[in-house]
Specification:
Blueprint: H1 7-18, H2 26-34, H3 42-54, E1 59-62, E2 66-69
Antiparallel strand pairs: 1-2
Helix pairs in contact: 1-3
């Protein structure tokens, strides 16, 4: 079943799918999506919304490093 995602979530998902073995840090994702390093939790919120929209777990948390796509 198709899932409709906002542009920002599509951008984030494309990063993970484009490099499935890579671990993305919060700062790296902030730079790619908003052009600056962010101290906030915007990335956490976007990843949570992606998980909810997909109806399954898409990412694994790599402690003290960031997130990677579950392959």
């Amino acid at each position: 079943e198709p899932v409709v995602l906002p542009p920002r979530q599509v951008e984030i998902l494309a990063l993970f799918v484009g490099r499935p073995g890579r671990v993305w840090s919060r700062d790296e994702l902030h730079w790619v999506c908003w052009g600056h390093s962010g101290a906030g939790r915007r990335i956490d919120v976007q990843l949570s919304r992606l998980r909810t929209g997909a109806g399954r777990e898409l990412f694994r948390t790599v402690r003290h490093r960031g997130w990677a796509l579950i392959t």
